[in-house]
Design brief:
Layout lengths: L1 H17 L5 H21 L1
Helix pairs in contact: 1-2
Length: 45
Amino acid sequence: MARRSATETAAILDILDRRQAVAASVLAPALELLERVVAMLARLA
């Protein structure tokens, strides 16, 4: 369930980036944090 939520979050961030709805300075830290969360979830599986 958590991995799916992370995937959905990645998709939302991708849409925000493509539509330029969020500044890159805001998006970059969010993507970095998401990568860390996904890595942690992958280790748990």
